[in-house]
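A common beginner's mistake is to predict each chain separately and then try to dock the pieces by hand. The better habit, illustrated here, is to supply every component at once so that their relative placement is modeled jointly.
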Amino acid sequence: MKKSRGMILGSLLGIVALGLLAGRCAPSGPRAKRAGAVSDMAVAAQKVYVAPGDLDEYYMFASGGHSGQVYVYGLPSGRHISTIPVFAPYPATGYGFDDESRAMLGDLTWGDVHHPSLSETKGDYDGRWLFINDMNGRIARIDLRDFKVKQIIGPVPNVSGNHASAFVTPNTEYSVMASRFSIPIPKGTAVEVSKYATNYKGVVTGIKIDPQSGQMSIGWQIVMPPFDYDLGDAGKLVSDGFVFFTSYNTERATGKLEVTASQRDRDLIAAVDWRLAEKAFAEGKGKTIGGLRVLDPKEVPGLVYFMPCGKSPHGVDVSPDGKYVIGSGKLQGVTTAFNWEKVQTAMRNKDFQGDEDGIPILKYESIKDAEVPVGLGPLHTQFGPDGYAYTSLFVDSAIAKWRLGTWEVVDKVPMSYSIGHLSAAEGDTVSPDGKYLVGLNKLSHGRHLSVGPSQPESSQLVDITEEKMKLLLDFFTEPEPHYAQIIKADKIKPIEVYPKEENKHPLAIWDVKDAGVTRQGNKVTVKMVAVRSTFTPTDFEVREGDEVKIALTNIEQTTDELHGFGLLDYNINIVVDPGETKTVTFKAKRKGVFPYYCTNFCSALHQEMQGYLVVR
Amino acid sequence: MRAFFEKTNRFLDLPLDLSPRVLLLLAALLLIPALLLPLHDMTMFAPQYPDGLRLHIYAHKLDGGNRGQDIREINVLNHYIGMKDLVTEDFTEFQWIPFVLGILALLFLRAVVHGKTSHLVDVLVLYIYFGLFALWSFAYKMYAYGHNLDPKAAVRVDPFMPPLFGYKKLANFEVYSYPGTGSYALLGVAVVLALAVLLAGRGGRREAAA
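With all components supplied together, the output reads:
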């Protein structure tokens, strides 16, 4: 009896022990996290430390996604240095408030920018301009002399969802555009979605760039089958003369695209002969659609070829020597390397496996060199100077390093988390720098102080100077960096004041004696001077209903002496840099007295820099 | 042969001692945690999910970590490979397992009250049958989820068997699959019943010697 009581007690204890065991089997975190990510913190810290007063080695221009802006970071510190407003108003610099920038923005007050593209000479960054796309069919040109938007072209006719943009050709002859969302063209044509496969069209467009002024104009446009043109890159050196666009939805499907557009095992990369497009356009070929002459590939043989590429390819990237075109099928575990020499041979020999709307499809087996097993969800590829390529892996949340030619994957570094684009220092040029690489991740998942549900993105700096990639730094980027480009700082030579002698503004004045109000009917022009710490005139009067134009010249020639002009109750705030003249025009709709004041801190008596507008 | 049957019949007809009855009561009580606590836990880590996604299978329902959100997240991910949504309604097990556990509890209690050794042996055999059948049922369910993949899914993967015990790497996920606390209670029931039979057997031998 005693013994059996012992057994009951024993079994009870056993059950409690089993219970304690339960739920302890699964670990508390993934293997990589348990192992620790940064191996040598002291070394990493030293590599990214830029001492107070010292300057970063590289500029990184990051697209700001649907913020419509471009963000400038310094590398290796990862410090956000400046914001360049492009497609959305930005009161901090008065962008979108003065007459000129408001006219550039037009009716649109938002943009969705994805792919910054630095101007190139012979395939290398020359530090002159930065082009950036907007989904609303536009491209902006930022002058890197003053980091300001100088021109916005578009919305360009027939382009719908300008995502595969603003990639430039090796001598900045063209910046390209393409439709991600095919529509019936010209715009304004309404056709039911069920006729998508036949009546909807995509287009690709070359925006011509003046080599001296950078002025953009529409070069050529080509009508394409209704696929979703996704990303692009221009050929270089041996492949110069062509520009490549990936496409998904070659199924020509509608509805639930995540399924219907993922049925084919291979989609297509379009190879467009832009020199031929230029020539055909000059010869007057094509027919007018939406006010623009549009080329049809059927009528210009050799204008466009399709290259089959593994499932729903996202990025297409040309190697520094121009010999390989790398296409990444995002729903695969491999990235495909096409050999340009083989592509050309297949074009010459008409080695086709069919066509789409008369555009020949090159035979996959004849043009591909390798399917590189980089990992799950490959998206984009950048390059180093030593024959290595780096591919971002969204699903694996990592970067794979592999070798061109031998196709062996040599290293992987985890990214936190879910990397989209990546950007290597000058990593898409003919001569990559190879020092750093930045992973532009989509999720930050608690790697920063929590700021609520609306989260920044996490970007990570990786050292690529050695055999093994090394994670150096996390920093956080404004929503939402898609692509970014990294350029050696000494290639850009910005001015810090606008020289007086260069200011040709007709309403510019340089002496307070010239300031004042002139009237023509109900149009009032106010020539105003801003200089520490007074606006001249300090007050002025207009009549209710007048159209008032204030031309404000900041006559300072000293670095960082900016003046802002905020006019209360009139929704006006412009900022004028040293040596600059800006105008703002408005209707004096309301009677009363309205203070104006300097919004951008300027001096010890900044608070006193104020005046009154009296509307009678 | 006959001697063996007579001996067995005599043993099965013997009334149970106190200690096997206490153990039978304990077994009945252990069915309560088995009903209330998870029978199986799956934990999945991916680089994007450093905190993991957790799936808890109870006798009567599915539940996810993070206040149920994890199960929605798992379903969102699985839809890319064309796997059916994991929903409680798809598991007939969630109806018959609690019912059978109730019956078993009643049979245990019946054996406690007017128990003969034969009752004890009956419930043990029934219990083992139930345990093996439930195990097979869940295993088959897992197999079916991993094999009935929509051929039109965006991402096509080879059919696979989710792990039933231990670790398995599935695409970018580390999957850990282990029995939950409820299953340990069920295992406890088996141990306790086996002990009860053992004690009853010793009681029988004492009887025979007397």
